[in-house]
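ENTRY TYPE: paired fold submission
RECORD: A
CONTENT: sequence, then structure tokens
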Amino acid sequence: MNLALIFSIFGFIFVAELPDKTALASLVLATRYKPLVVFTGAAAAFVVQSLVAISVGSLVSLLPQELVHRLAGLLFLIFAFFMWRRNQEDEEHRLGEEVNTTSFLKGSWAAFLVVFIAEWGDLTQLATATLEAKYRDPLSVFLGATLALWAVAALAIVIGNRANTFLNPRITQKIAAIIFALLGIVLLIGLI
């Protein structure tokens, strides 16, 4: 394990991930679910994606980008639809209760799916694969990349959760649904 390499990769991946769609997805999901729920799902997705990148190395870049973007776009549109239609009174009632295992798992699974699909073939996953191919130090590359992805997700989740306290939850819900829909459309038509 090479600490200098870990810190170097952390910085690189952190900066690359900040403007990314997965950071935006984490932010938006945090307006719907509790922060720990979103972080658990997102963190698990990032671990899997980093393991894929490390395992496959530079071969990740051979994945059909168009198909990955279309699937991610479709998923974002589906989440936008359900986010737009959810009943705010039921949600407020549920937030007042203790979070049960089912809602925790449901929210974590939703966060996992959104982040996993959005990250597939993404710049930071390709960068992680390329860095592994270059340095041949899987543990250092994995730790640096995964910790950076977690840090960006945590930052986005805190911002998304705070947005819910400043804005009317119904407005936040509608804004989140619109952002998901726009991101889905952009992915489907191939602009990103």
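RECORD: B
CONTENT: sequence, then structure tokens
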Amino acid sequence: MYSQPVTVRLFAVSLVMLGALPACSEKSPPPAMATAAPALATLTVKTESMRNEQIWDGVVEAVHEVTISAQTAARVIELPYDVNDSVAEGAVIVRFTDVEQKSARAAAQAQIASARATYTDAKASYNRNTALFARGLVAKSVLDQSLATRDASLAALHSAEAQSRQVSQQLDYTVVRAPYAGIITHRYVHVGESVQAGPPAPQQLIAMASLKDLRVTVQVPQSAIAAIRQFASAQVVLDGDSGRRVAASKMTIFPYADPQTHTFSVRLELSGDDSRLYPGMTVKVAFASGEASRLLVPESSLIRRGEMLGVYVLGDHGVSLRQVRIGDRNSSRIEILAGLDDGEKICTDPAAAARWLIEQRTGAKT
């Protein structure tokens, strides 16, 4: 009677254990993050054939830059513009006193009137002597003398007219106008100051530069000039503008090196004007030097965590944040040097990927 209940209990325990064995042998289901594919915008990264570059510093210059000097002796009475002011083409930038110039013009005009009257009289005298000589009433010497007088008076008239033009030009020099639209870069004189046209050299008045046509000059070491000559392609990188680039419309490589620095000058012409470029500023210039395979991702897909840069990668088990090392910028895309492989999928919206991860972790805890 005592041993039978013990046997029954052992048998029941054995049945329970046997029933539990299939359950223990089955693989536990993976978490939701491993099975559910997130509905996120993705991009499959692929290596692209891009041009290999060498980057050097350059200086922006104005193609049209001038220093205007005095062409007449006078005193400054007006300076409408100061340094950094923008001026339109033909605008008055310096005005001088013109009392002496106007007096000289009046004297020149009076001289022309006198010379013209003399010539008119000499011409009439010559015409009369010609008629009298034809009738035999005057000698040949008289006719020759009247001809010489007429020609001399005509020459005096031409000289007076030339003198008047010169004086009028001096009067025009009392008003200095901008040769083209641009900005004032330097002012050498002040109101009330007297200037001279020379000698030994004309006095400088105003320096200005046009912002319409710009160029970039780069000093390149002789070890790099061969590749630049071979590919003859360059782009100006605009810092602070998401890596935007401006292609050079023309590239000129100077055929000689500086004997002191042993560098070659390369001049890049830029078509049109760009509000981000100003004369005197430094820029980066990327010269083509060959072809290379690069892995590029949109800059917007990168996420920064302190000093770390990373991207959200979509794999077989969901989304994970992976650290990457970046290289050069190419327009709105960034080169990936390490951390990603060709063919992997990345999330193009890092904020959406981060929210998805948070939702998955919150759901797993509950």
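NOTES ON RECORD B: The first helix runs from residue 3 to 25. Residues 1-35 have pLDDT under 50 and may be disordered.
STATUS: closed
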